[in-house]
Amino acid sequence: MTDRTDEQLLADHAAGDADAFRRLVERYNRELYTFVFRFTRSTAAAEDVVQESFLQIHLSADRFDPSRRFKPWLFTIGANKARDWLRGRSRQREVPLDAKISGADETGQTFLDLLSDPGDAPGEAMEADETRQAVQRAVDRLPPALREALVLAYFHRFAYKEMADILGIPVGTVKSRLHAAVGAFGKVFREESRNRENLSGE
What we know:
By secondary structure, this protein is mainly α. It has two domains: about 1-95, Rna Polymerase Sigma Factor, Chain: A (Orthogonal Bundle); about 95-200, Arc Repressor Mutant, subunit A (Orthogonal Bundle). The protein has nine helices and no strands. α2 (about 20-40) runs antiparallel to α3 (about 45-60), α2 (about 20-40) packs across α4 (about 70-85) and α3 (about 45-60) crosses α4 (about 70-85). The protein is elongated, with a radius of gyration of 19 Å.
């Protein structure tokens, strides 16, 4: 039997299928948690936001527009709740976002290579750790709006229209924001790389 789509599961949940909602949670719990954690940098906050997001899905299932996709809707809710949590923190403290890049030596790599999160490469633990730290520092230095665009586009592979829905901005703004984010990241990452080379040469 062909597995049901997200939208079918949500419709079945709204119609009273007790198992459908559990399957949706199992399908997206880990990915949503990872997404939220990259913003909050707090395991407790990420767990709370994920629970609150699925609770809202549970309560609002009968109002979901079946012509739309479920995943962008879920991530819109998660992003909004993560922003609410961040606003509750001290405005003087920048909350970092860990890019979680691993398993690559940056030599000869492009920006997309660095942000593709390919997983650990055997035998390159030290290089991977250095690259992780450099990328994390670079992404941490970006303004929150640019960080958000990078995470949605390169880690979660959302299309422009889906990003626009999640962020509540026009598609044109998404494109310009992502373009600015790529440029800003490239500049900062090069600075981080030079700093690392200078330190290693001392």
